[in-house]
Protein 1
Amino acid sequence: MAEITANIQVAPGIFRMSVAGAYAGKMGQFYMLRAWDKTPLLSRPISIYSLDAEEIHFLYQVVGEGTRILSMLQAGDEITLEGPFGNGFPELNGKVALVGGGIGIAPFYYALQSLPQADVYLGFSQKPYEVDHFKRITDRVTVNVGGHILDLVDYEAYDAIFVCGPNAMMQAAQRLNERWSGRNKVYVSLENRMACGVGACLVCSVGTTGGRKKSCVDGPVFAVEEVKSW
Ligand SMILES: Cc1cc2nc3c(=O)[nH]c(=O)nc-3n(C[C@H](O)[C@H](O)[C@H](O)COP(=O)(O)OP(=O)(O)OC[C@H]3O[C@@H](n4cnc5c(N)ncnc54)[C@H](O)[C@@H]3O)c2cc1C
Ligand code: FES
């Protein structure tokens, strides 16, 4: 169990939670969060939003029972964290674009801390949030509201493009990659439902060119051309 030090609503239905403790993790990895006993049954996967020597931070959207319970927690309450899980984004040289849609921006704040030279693209359907955090690290932040953030990314300008957002956005990233076949460099972080987070239950199974894989241990980050079912 760990102590929550803050759990702040940063936009309608969007919370940033800080938990005390020294945690490990690479960009794109996630933790399984649990702040209840029996119900709901399963822990919830949430990406590392930020990490320092004393705290770990998560940015999450309230969508159902689990995240609703998380949103009601206050500083001083306790939570159970297991992780870090997953493979995370590859550490590549060259020019990188980080492209997040909605709550899909969550893994990219930590990624930007690892890749401060990256260009950041943040897309929102409504009022943006956390943009000032990103701008504290770089001035190369492009924000779009109500449009398609991927349309603003010049595919040819980058050696690697990391994408996280709604499935429709990641499918669009796949089409973009196909249009420029032979220059595969787009990586997506999938948000499949998960139960165990450690490869034991197959709930998170994803169809790939290499057969069925487990998003929790083989992903959640995949080269986009590898993904066959979303
Ligand atoms: C790797 C990863 C990283 C993520 N990072 C973030 C993040 O940083 N911020 C964020 O806001 N969200 C993130 N998500 C999404 C987040 O996990 C979900 O929004 C959250 O689990 C929803 O839980 P809930 O109880 O609020 O919603 P509900 O929809 O009520 O419950 C969803 C949970 O029920 C279970 N479940 C529901 N349907 C199925 C099914 N068909 N098969 C198996 N199990 C099922 C799963 O455990 C699932 O997590 C991430 C997801 C993944 C996979
Ligand atoms: S969540 Fe159980 S195998 Fe991936």
Protein 2
Amino acid sequence: MTKTNNGQKKYKIPDYKADNIHNDWCPGCGDYGILSGIQMALANLGLPPHEVAVISGIGCSGKTSHYINAYGFHTLHGRVVPNATGMKLANHDLTVLGVGGDGDGYGIGAGHFVAGGRRNLDFTYVIFNNNIYALTKGQASPTIGKGEQTKTMPEQSIYNPINPVALAISSGYTFVAQSYALDVKYTADIIARAIQHPGSAVVDVLQTCPAFNNLHTKTWFEGLDREEKQPRLYKLEDEGYDGTVPEPENPDSVSKTKAAAIEKALASKNGRIPVGVFYEHRTATLEDYLSKKIPALASTSMVKMDIYDRDISPLLDELR
Ligand SMILES: Cc1ncc(C[n+]2csc(CCOP(=O)(O)OP(=O)(O)O)c2C)c(N)n1
Ligand code: SF4
């Protein structure tokens, strides 16, 4: 199975743009940057649009599957992971991308999010993290900080926030990264790395929502409100951090790298936020395990198998 096109045909960003679909995102929304980042990543990897499937949840971010020229499925609120799992298991020749909001993934879909990490299925989940439920007019989402209050919240949040990177790593995702929607090229590079990673990958993309989130604005991310006027975001690689598990088959090496990555995600560095790849572990995928149980899967996707050509008489005999 390969996730890249080996340079057969050159695809360009417009090849991944859906024709004649009206985009109703607000002007200046961070969603545009993430959409462009996904399309740029697909073009850079040269993946044929008919070999890509995009599954989206409910929310402003959920509309993304409509705007990408690929197979698309707009599912129920919080159900990105089970749908992506079913799609990938049925046709492992597809590159499967899940997309959805932080409310969708870490709120209503939190149980599925955790279960998705345990499996190490080969798919990529891009989460649009704007700290609010945007489509329903800006209620607090699970990633908003305790004590924070946007203009659409009646009071300050009284809950501790979920840390997406720490949650993803502890759930078992084997590639975990964070990016920023308005840095499109960086987001595209991280998404391309996530797609190329053989296993479950999460990219949490910090996103502006100019309509409802008046706290985490472009100015805020650029740090223009800070005395030192320095960007709030810094890149992990600029500090020499490398989250790759050095000995992938050694459990100690895995847990030490995990602990270091979680520490990076939780550390408060003068209010600054790290972006980049926190954790990468190359290990057997769910598909590898399943191919051992059902050897035909190693060469043939389930959708290409003739499910009616099975002799179930031994099973029936047992039940008689
Ligand atoms: C089962 C269910 N509960 C609630 C809703 C209402 N609803 C629609 S979108 C949404 C929030 C979306 O927020 P998020 O996932 O963060 O995406 P965003 O709009 O911010 O991109 C909610 C609660 C729904 N559609 N279905
Ligand atoms: S409400 Fe926010 S997230 Fe939704 S389209 Fe408008 S700016 Fe974007």
